[in-house]
Amino acid sequence: MAFRRALKQAAAVGGVAVTTVFGLSQLTEYRRTQAQLVRVTAEAELKVPFANELPSREAQLAALQDTPEFDVLIVGGGATGAGCALDAVTRNLKTALVERSDFSSGTSSRSTKLIHGGVRYLQKAIMKLDYEQYMMVKEALHERANLLEIAPHLSAPLPIMLPVYKWWQLPYYWAGIKMYDVVAGIHCLKSSYLLSKSKALEYFPMLNKDKLVGAIVYYDGQHNDARMNLGIALTAARHGAAVANYTEVVHLLKTKNQQTGREKLCGAHCRDVLTGKEFDVRAKCVINATGPFTDSLRQMDKQETTKICQPSAGVHIVMPGYYSPDNMGLLDPATSDGRVIFFLPWEKMTIAGTTDTPTDVTAHPIPGEDDINFILREVRNYLSPDVEVRRGDVLAAWSGIRPLVTDPNSKDTQSICRNHIVSISDTGLITIAGGKWTTYRAMAQETIDAAVKFLHLPARPCRTVGLMLEGAKDWTPTLFIRLVQDYGLEEEVAQHLATAYGGKAFDVAKMAQVTGQRWPIVGKRLVSEFPYIEAEVLYAIKEYACTAIDVMARRTRLSFLNVQAADEALPRIVQIMGKELNWSQEKRTEELEAAKMFLYHEMGYRSRSERLTTSSEIHLDYQDVMRYKNRFHKFDKESKGFITTVDVQRVLQSINVYIDENALHEILNEVDLNKNGQVEFNEFLKLMSAVKKGQVSDSRLAILLKSAEATLDTRKAVTVDRSGGGL
Prior knowledge:
CATH topology of the largest domain: FAD/NAD(P)-binding domain
CATH class of the largest domain: Alpha Beta
Number of strands: 21
CATH architecture of the largest domain: 3-Layer(bba) Sandwich
Strand content: 15-25%
Oligomer: single chain
Structural class: alpha+beta
Shape: globular
Helix content: 40-55%
Number of helices: 27
Distance between the termini: 95 Å
Largest sheet: 11 strands, mixed
């Protein structure tokens, strides 16, 4: 009550009295309360035309074609483009957005999954007394707090450990991390703290303890980047923006002033990638938010325009969850080549990255083997020698293209801009480029501000600070319990649905099929070891998923977590989508092939499959060869020199183990390098050599044969004495 009276007094006499009435903690609480009141009021005034149901993609395309003129047309459906659409539509501007692929199909789904201010940027700002870089960190920390608030189901604070191996570094790093807290101010997630060597090893047992003197733990945010991007786009759609994926710009539309002869943009000629239908979208303003493809649209506007994008590839890998604690990340501040490596728990797996190498702009970046091995080497440096970091443990890998830019308005056009830039061409094309995931909202606000000012658009002030995203409004930390109790879902599945969909998880649960089992009652999994269920495929279509890749990469995150599991789930995903969307058999085959190519090239399946090939060398000593020969001959009774499913099935049945014939075919096919329907002894030795070197870590055939051999060896003949005698 005393605090509330003080709050009223302070509000009555103005901001000056606040500091005299309150202490520091009360002042912080007052500011937060005032900010929340402003946000609640702002949300209450906003109209949400499609609060109950999203318009279909067909309806969105019709809106793009039938609307005489939009105020704003945004090209690009990544985080920045979707942010621009949400900012514009909530200012009461007629808003359109087109994306030639899927929402978040590019860089926005291939990040480190961190929402951060940038510890290393702050270090540079202090060391070089760089005020601009300092303000960039401060802005990012403000945006970090906002993002965690507006999508609490998709994001959360994450403690990150910085291990220290030299005594003099302890006060140096501690001062820097404490400065990070200070710069965050009231937006500081949790205060950083020091750990002794023993405590550091208690929290992160996998850590290399040799020469370790202690550690510092600080907090940043972590999120599901693709679903966050999608959430921004869906929120814009609910507020009335016409957004369409798989809609590309063929060329820009221009009008010419008869008096001055100057050309001005008035929209874009677009094409529905799925049907081939072309149409015009008229707009007063066109915004270029295409990330790495910034220069493509700029040169579409004016061919001789100088390129400003300098793309850089960042590779990440995913490893099993046992490589890191459930809730503690790791930062390597100085790798062997001066880069920073993060090692983070994510979706019950471990993500490690990133690299930073110049690259060409492409819609389909491929993770290179050199980059994967670089990350593995750096990880080995920080983990205990007891933990064998194996190449075979890389479950998925991807490359994202970071769109670094030079400022076209700067005299020194060769210098990289450390922040984002907003530029306006002679014809009125507004380009937003650079920046990072965390500051997407601030970048969008600045871009729409520029559009409003340049074209004198009748817009309200920005409303996106505190504006809750799709699914956030009805989310609570205990929502998953209601899903278990009301629908009979597995707890793990319910937790996943709650964090991926927030309040919309109930809509997914309603679509879940009955399993026919005692438990769970509903919710058939797409693949046994992940909590993704078949109902999510149907719901993904409502979220504008058009291809199998959309579902396994961005509506669920299966392909980013385990490419082999994604490959196994793929046929069922295509089957469900095919039935719902009335795909022909030819279309279903095309989807399967396209998705397999995506997994093979872009998600690291190629690197994974190339660990064991016909050209693989055998590196085994004599004792190893003889041991594996004896194991092989337990299955190859006739000494044929090869084994088939019949041989394996016979041995398994003798020890009372039964495996489905189709599953057994798949297991042998992984090792059948020349694809002749049998595993030859030479192929088996190549497999065991790859297992020994750590190139292959999860071969089902290797584990199956080893387990069967152990069982056979432990079984002994029952003697006549023990059997009770005989005749």
